[in-house]
């Protein structure tokens, strides 16, 4: 399986990359880790005529603090996220989720930018970024702009990225100290996309849920925020009836495709179970 | 499509070649360099048979273009023996513990285990199993592969290898 022919470009700066993308037009694609794009090119499901490899751009790498935010460069790999003390301390849910992405070899190459910008409903980071309230920095020929993760996903592989724009970093607000978190992912085997997955970040006060956000992966053509499910648990101690209500509220907004991972009803059902488990585990971790 | 000149270090030696941008690294290693120890299995980034070590990372060489490896330092299974030609601890482990059946997945397993032991010289059984989760053996199972890596870990750390009781 060999991809079709293309021209290879390796710009050294974001400005050069943006200029190449806008000059070369719609048949040009940015290349990050390549673990979604290269297999697609081998299957000839994608055939860009120009590849703009972002690996030569030092400014797209690294993790830094900016006020209360962790700013993660788009070309930061999952492996680097897993090695980051800052991530492990400030937002351990990111660590937990990165460990569930594909396998070690893919994590050495796979990047946060590629994961969130591709618009693949199966990717794990988008729902997580919505749950954490992250913002994406997009750079284009006309300048830069910030888009909330929650506003970024418009359909399967359709995002707020305009032609010629590159996602350069992800800015994630550090959750409150003592927060509980969990990413529950059901998959058929190591390395697989989720049959369904749920991310929960919550805080507890006096044994009751004070704040809660729930994100859902791969149960719709875009990642979802389960706002009604989150609302249903606030003020409760997550008793059995509340958990049932939250799972039902989350299932109500799911619209997964039937695929090799199971029929629609099954995927919704296990999606509800992931929500329940994530809520329970997050609550058990909250201080 | 015009070819690009690439140079890289493979198993300690400088190599060069002309590649099309679409030439996958695994094809460059096998066809241009004639090193056929790196295998092509699934071609879809799942099986790990094409794993090589690039600049301190285990990489599936079927999912990277040769042009992207320009200037890199690469180790393939051909570079795994000791300088005097004897088997490295990992190779010896796979031989002693019979960590293979048909052997097709073995080069990728060894290359992945090589990086795993560099990062964590004393992995637990669970860490070994997670560490090689991107490498698939279709013959039989992973029991002896895990033992082979445990053998190598013991040897690297200078301790006696003891098989866990069944």
TrEMBL record, chain A:
Keyword Flavoprotein in annotation: yes
Q: Which UniProt keywords apply?
A: FAD, Flavoprotein, Oxidoreductase
Domain annotation FAD-binding PCMH-type: ranges:
1-177
Q: Which domain of life is it from?
A: Bacteria
GO MF entries: FAD binding; oxidoreductase activity
Name the InterPro entries for this protein: CO_DH_flav_C (IPR005107), CO_DH_flav_C_dom_sf (IPR036683), Diverse_Substr_Oxidored (IPR051312), FAD-bd_PCMH (IPR016166), FAD-bd_PCMH-like_sf (IPR036318), FAD-bd_PCMH_sub1 (IPR016167), FAD-bd_PCMH_sub2 (IPR016169), Mopterin_DH_FAD-bd (IPR002346)
Does the record bear Ligase in its keywords?
Answer: no
Q: Which PANTHER family match?
A: XANTHINE DEHYDROGENASE SUBUNIT C-RELATED
Would you tell me the protein name for this molecule? Answer: Xanthine dehydrogenase family protein subunit M
What's the source species' lineage?
Bacteria, Pseudomonadati, Pseudomonadota, Alphaproteobacteria, Hyphomicrobiales
From TrEMBL, chain B:
Q: What GO molecular functions are on record for this protein? A: 2 iron, 2 sulfur cluster binding; metal ion binding; oxidoreductase activity
Arranged from A to Z, the UniProt key words for this protein are: 2Fe-2S, Iron, Iron-sulfur, Metal-binding, Oxidoreductase
The UniProt entry's coiled-coil ranges are none
Give the organism, scientific name: Bradyrhizobium guangzhouense
The record's annotation in SUPFAM superfamilies points to: 2Fe-2S ferredoxin-like, CO dehydrogenase ISP C-domain like
Q: Is Flavoprotein one of the keywords UniProt gives this record?
A: no
Write down what this protein is called: (2Fe-2S)-binding protein
Instruction: Give the matching InterPro entries.
Output: 2Fe-2S-bd, 2Fe-2S-bd_dom_sf, 2Fe-2S_ferredoxin-like_sf, 2Fe-2S_ferredoxin-type, Beta-grasp_dom_sf, Diverse_Oxidoreductases
Q: Key word Membrane present in the record? A: no
Q: List each copy of the 2Fe-2S ferredoxin-type domain by range.
A: 4-80
Q: Which PROSITE patterns match?
A: 2FE2S_FER_2
């Amino acid at each position: 399986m060999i991809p079709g022919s293309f021209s290879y470009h390796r710009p050294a700066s974001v400005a050069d990359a943006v200029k190449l993308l806008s000059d070369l037009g719609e048949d040009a694609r940015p290349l990050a880790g390549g673990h979604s794009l290269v297999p697609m090119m081998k299957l000839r499901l994608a055939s860009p005529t120009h590849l703009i490899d972002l690996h030569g751009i030092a400014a797209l790498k690294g993790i830094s603090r900016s006020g209360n935010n962790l700013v993660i460069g788009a070309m930061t790999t999952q492996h680097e996220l897993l090695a980051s003390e800052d991530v492990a301390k400030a937002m351990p849910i990111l660590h937990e989720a990165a460990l569930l992405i594909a396998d070690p070899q893919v994590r050495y190459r796979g990047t946060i930018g590629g994961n969130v910008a591709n618009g693949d409903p199966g990717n794990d980071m988008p729902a997580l970024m919505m749950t954490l309230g992250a913002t994406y920095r997009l750079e284009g020929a006309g300048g830069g702009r910030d888009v909330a993760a929650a506003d970024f996903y418009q359909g399967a592989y359709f995002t707020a990225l305009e032609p010629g724009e590159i996602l350069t970093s992800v800015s994630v607000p550090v959750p409150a100290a003592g927060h509980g978190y969990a990413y529950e992912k059901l998959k058929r085997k190591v390395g697989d996309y989720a049959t369904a997955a749920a991310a929960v970040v919550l805080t507890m006060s006096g044994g009751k849920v004070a704040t809660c956000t729930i994100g859902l992966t791969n149960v719709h053509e875009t990642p979802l925020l389960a706002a009604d499910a989150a609302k249903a648990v606030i003020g409760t101690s997550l008793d059995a009836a509340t958990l049932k209500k939250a799972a039902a509220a989350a299932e109500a907004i799911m619209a997964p495709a039937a695929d090799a991972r199971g029929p629609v009803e099954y995927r919704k059902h296990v999606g509800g179970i992931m929500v329940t488990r994530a809520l329970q585990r997050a609550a058990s971790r909250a201080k | 499509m015009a070819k690009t000149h690439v140079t890289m270090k493979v198993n300690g030696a400088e190599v060069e070649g002309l590649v099309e941008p679409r030439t996958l690294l695994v094809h460059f290693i096998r066809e241009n360099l004639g090193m056929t120890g790196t295998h092509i299995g699934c071609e879809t980034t799942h099986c790990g048979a094409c794993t090589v070590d690039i600049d301190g990372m285990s990489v599936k060489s079927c999912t990277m273009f040769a042009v992207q490896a320009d200037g890199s330092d690469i180790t393939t299974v051909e570079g795994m023996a000791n300088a005097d030609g004897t088997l490295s601890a990992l190779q010896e482990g796979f031989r002693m513990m019979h960590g293979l059946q048909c052997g097709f997945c073995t080069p990728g397993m060894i290359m992945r285990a090589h990086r795993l032991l560099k990062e964590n010289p004393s992995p637990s059984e669970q860490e070994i199993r997670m560490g090689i989760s991107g490498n698939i053996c279709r013959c039989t199972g992973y029991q002896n592969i895990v033992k082979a890596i445990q053998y190598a870990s013991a040897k690297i750390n200078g301790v006696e290898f003891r098989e866990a009781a069944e």
